[in-house]
Amino acid sequence: MAFLDDYKAKFHNLKVSADFKNRNQLRREANGGNSILFTYPPDEEKLYLQKAQEYLPTSQYKFIDIAKLFVEFIDIDGWNDFKEYYEDFSLTPHIIFNSDDDAIDLMDLIIREISEAEEAGLMPILIRTGALYGTGIENVNIMEHSSVMELKQPLIIFYPVKIENENLLFLNFKQASKYRCTIID
User: Fold this and answer.
1) How crowded is residue 154: how many other Cβ atoms within 10 Å of its Cβ?
2) pTM of the predicted structure, to 2 decimals
3) Where in the sequence is the domain holding 122, given as residue range(s)?
4) Domain for residue 98, yes or no?
């Protein structure tokens, strides 16, 4: 369905799914998870983000821009060091972006922002998630993180996909998980 016909219903469905009264239903549909994937065609991302600013007030929601966090992550060590590790670990990017060591990585920055939203009583919304492509961080890594599973309010992930035969194709081509989430399509 075209954006103009579709967006009002999708934002309404998002608010219904995220409503406190529907939390048990969300967890059942999400296989015990606590996340909502708000899907849209990648070429309509800008339109959906503009409408999100109108429909989802910052007094209730915190928008977490993954692309900005990606830049913040690079700035921690500087471009030259980042470029060097990225070249060294290009076949295993999760070692750079989602490692188990004490060094701050992109996943740590994402979880920090989600936790800060929770502490402020705001529902976290991840936007510009296309920036995750090539990092080794999949939507399910975020959705299954213990901090996300324990949130009082669900995590909303704005997710650019094509849905084909009930399969999610992130950025129109990469198979994506729909486990641990409810999907708004």
Assistant:
1) 26
2) 0.93
3) 3-159
4) yes
pLDDT digits (tens, 9 = 90+) for 43-63: 999 999 999 999 999 999 999
Question: What region, left, alpha or beta, does residue 32 occupy, with left being phi > 0 and alpha being psi -120 to 50 degrees?
Answer: left
Burial of 59 (0-12, 13-18, 19+ CB in 10 A): exposed
Question: Which DSSP helix (H) or strand (E) runs through 4?
Answer: helix 3-18
Which among 122, 131, 135, 117 is positioned nearest to 159, based on CA atoms?
131
- The whole-angstrom separation of Cα 172 and Cα 61 is 27
Query: Are the C-beta atoms of residues 48 and 7 closer than 8 Å to each other?
Result: yes
In a domain, 99, yes or no: yes
The total of structural domains in the chain comes to 1
Burial class (CB in 10 A: 0-12, 13-18, 19+), 49: middle
Beta pairing class for 155-164 and 181-184? unpaired
Q: Is residue 183 part of a domain?
A: no
Cβ count near 174 (within 10 Å): 12
Tokens of 22: 């529907």
Does 37 fall in a domain?
Answer: yes
Structure tokens at 47: 């339109």
pLDDT at 146 over 60: yes
Burial of 65 per CB tally in 10 Å (0-12, 13-18, 19+): middle
In the beta sheet, which residues pair with residue 164?
167
